[in-house]
Amino acid sequence: MKQYLRPVQRFIYFLLKNHAIADDLTQEVFVKVYKHMGSFRNESSVKTWIYKIAVNEVKMHRRSSWFRRFILFGNINEELAGYQDDSEMSAPEQEEVLRVVLSLSPNYREVILLHYYQDLTVAEVATILGISHDAVYTKLHRAKKQLKERLEKEGFAWT
Amino acid sequence: MDIDKLLRDSARVVNTPSLRQRANIDQLEERIHTRVMKPAKRRQPLFYVAVPLCLLIAITLLFPQGKGLVEQTMKLSSQASNKEPALPSLHFTDKESLLNKITLENVTVAPPYVKVTVDLDLKEHYWASLEEPYLVDEMGRKYLFVNKEEVVRDEKYVYTFISQKKFEAPPEAMSIHIPYVFVKKKMVPQDVQQFALTLNEKYPKTVSLDHLQLMIHSFTYSKDTLTLVVSSPQMRIGSLWLQPDFATYDDRRERIGTDKVSYRYVVSKQDSYSFHVSPVSPTLPEKVLNDLQIAFPIND
Fold it and tell me: What is the model's pLDDT at position B254?
């Protein structure tokens, strides 16, 4: 279970852009995972199950008034600056990519993070988000299109 | 540049934790572990009797001419269920007392309940009514006795109460409270007074009896039902019933406001009806009157 801890924490952080909240929600996710391990029915992989719990925790948090008051109006650059302190990114491009990914709408950011950053298949993403494979493909396509457009504005060129 | 490759490269870098991030994850793991391993709050045993249990027994005695408070403390060991504990008996040597003795028998403290038997030895011509006791633990939580049995044995009134089974905590001390023992003189011919009413009289009218005055507000007959409405400005207490219909008056009584009572009887129509009335103590608390369903205001 430990191998999922950091990926889930990073996933939540990239969705919410707040270290403290990401840590708190990760705790909640894994407490639930441990407590409900007995009722896990093997209908999906453990990894998918954990991410599903994480997505639900984030959704619940987004619905909270605390999130609406402080995060939606929070300073994204400040959060990214926090990330840069930890950064082992060698290339400024990679840093810029992440920055643009984090600027996507939560809907698109979610699929990009799950598919590319958490290395989950389209089928797994579909299970986690409770949507069809086609819907995942559509979201990925649109997210990447938006990402490309934004990166182009930053001077990226495509082959 | 390929967008997919760009994203995967970015992910690889992002997913490689720094030392500080590793430390952070270790702390996070520890916090989760602490929370998960925290023992769940266990349900307390239903009742715990391994320690000596101190039972404080408080009884309020209510007599027709007043009331008294009697308290006794009894200590029971955990073997109380097997051995006969020293039973508290309250003897009444006062010649004026209506009670010869109250004995608490078979106070059994054993899972899953507490059982207590109250034996009332009354003077001749008296009867008693006992409100169901309850238990209170040291935290002030109240437990009811759910099972009540009442028998008359050798002309003594014997009440057995069995407590509820679930106790929230292991109490070290509990009190048995018997809210009241109401002692009342049995009906003897001289206590019962008789009066008659006819339908063709005009109401309201006053009926004067020995030490008793009744205000009859209305006395009507309709749809096979006789209805009597009576009151008293002085709120003395008594019982009233139609002769010979002795036993069922309780079901037909209804209070109207604070001082009137309506009685209804399904009887055949006749010219005159005979009633019996009996006064009881004016000092009884309202609670007793309500519980015993004898609340009936009449004049002295």
Answer: 72
Query: Would you list the domain boundaries of chain B?
Result: 53-185, 193-298
Q: What is the pLDDT of residue B86?
A: 47
Contact A117 B28 (CB under 8 A): no
Polymer length in residues for chain A: 159
Query: Where do the DSSP E strands lie in B223-259?
Result: 225-231, 236-243, 253-256
What is the model's pLDDT at position A9?
85
Q: What is the pLDDT of residue A88?
A: 42
Interchain pair B24, A88: CB under 8 A: no
Q: Which domains can be identified in chain A, with CATH numbers? A: 2-153 (1.20.140.160)
For residue A70, the model assigns a pLDDT of: 44
pLDDT reported for residue B171: 59
Say which residues have a Cβ less than 8 Å from residue B248's Cβ, sequence separation at least 6: none
Which range is least confidently modeled, B150-164, B213-227, B262-276?
Answer: B150-164
- 8 A C-beta contact, residue B162 and residue B176: no
Assign residue B211 a region (left: φ > 0; alpha: ψ between -120 and 50; beta: otherwise): left
* Cα–Cα separations (whole angstroms), residue B89 to B14, B96, B101, B178, B181: 83, 19, 7, 14, 15
For B53-185, CATH gives: 2.60.40
State how far the Cα of B3 lies from the Cα of A149, in Å rounded to an integer.
11
Partners of residue B28 in chain A, C-beta under 8 Å: 5, 9, 23, 26-27
| Whether the predicted interface score ipTM is above 0.90 | no
Q: Are B116 and B53 in contact (CB under 8 A)?
A: no
